[in-house]
Amino acid sequence: MKIKFVAILAVITVLLVVVALQRQADDRVEDLQSRSLLSEGQLNALGELDAISLSRGADQVVLERVEGAWGVVSRDGFPAQPERVAALLHAVRGARVTEKQTADPQYHARLGLASEAPEAPPLRLQLNAGADQTALLFGNPVGSGQLVRFADEDQVWLINRPFGMTLNPQQWLDLKVVRIPMESAATARWEHADGEVLELEKGKEGDYNFHLAGLDLAEQQGSERWINSMVLALTGLNAQDVALRGTLELEAPVLRMQVSTWQGAEIAASLYDIAGRYWLTIDDFEQPEDSNLDVNADNRWAFQLGVAQVEDLLKRRSDIIRGETSE
């Protein structure tokens, strides 16, 4: 009886293996039968793009490449997030046709692919490489894929993955303004508009924590997090928004900041209060030739900060040294 049971179990195991292998073979056949949505020439043109447009009805994001860098047109050409642009191009390259659908235009509206539909327009992606233009319309999702057609063709295709990209221009902005590792920072100087100055330093290279210069360490023990948060708010700055400086009334700053690194890099920045909104400018940035710190020091821009960021930057000595009050 036991031998018969083992034999039956062995047969079942063999059958399961055969079924699994058959499914793998079917998947491979299906992969071989699918093809890239774009032609070879269109795929090659992705490396030569000079403009990308995403739109749905009145919502639109336009990117232009100038000297190899992508910028958001509606935001005065401010740099676009490289990761988001790369994700878009990767999605286009990876789109593969899995099934041929209808070529009858009377079904386009039902499939979410009617280019003139006022209530539910499709997502339109236009890729420009010089005189070469490719426009795609993305319609309804189907399973794990999505319906799509070329804007100048009636044929509808089902592709292997959905295509979704934000149409909010602000979400395309590269608002990572300053990237200076905390371990690299050596000294810092904060000067408030009323004359209060905080000089910060570290004991030696490789230290993480700053302390107030000229003050016994015992008096500021336990305040390292408060002190570090001041410097981190600048050295790891992510802005909330950006604007051209010429469009803002930047008068006297409420705070001037300077940070230097052990390797000889220096950054200077100013913080402005404009009707309760705070804007930061990078006034100067220098680094050695062999340094690769990432700082957007383009003097055309001012960066809007959030409340928590401003609270960190505007700390005073009385916030750091317990028991002291501002005079």
Average of pLDDT: 89
Radius of gyration: 29 Å
Spatial strand order of the main sheet: 1-6-10-9-8-7-2-3-4-5
- Structural category is alpha+beta
| Tally of separate helices | 6
Shape: elongated
Element order, helices and strands?
Answer: HEHEEEEHEEEEEEEEEHEEEEEEHH
Helix coverage percent of residues? 10-25%
Distance between the termini: 95 Å
Largest sheet: 10 strands, antiparallel
Number of β-strand runs: 20
Pfam families: DUF4340
InterPro entries: DUF4340 (IPR025641)
Protein name: DUF4340 domain-containing protein
Organism: Halopseudomonas salina
Fill in the keyword field for this structure.
DUF4340; 33% strand; 327 residues; ten-stranded antiparallel beta sheet; eight-stranded antiparallel beta sheet; 23% helix; alpha+beta
Describe the overall structure.
- This protein is of the alpha+beta class.
- Helix content is 23%, strand content 33%.
- It has helices at residues 2-33, 40-45, 82-94, 224-235, 307-313, 317-320, and strands at 35-36, 51-56, 59-66, 69-72, 78-79, 96-100, 123-129, 132-142, 145-150, 157-159, 178-179, 185-192, 197-201, 211-212, 241-244, 255-261, 266-274, 277-286, 294-295, 301-304.
- The longest helix has 32 residues, at 2-33.
- The protein starts with a helix and ends in a 7-residue tail after the last helix.
- Residues 25-32 have low confidence and may be disordered.
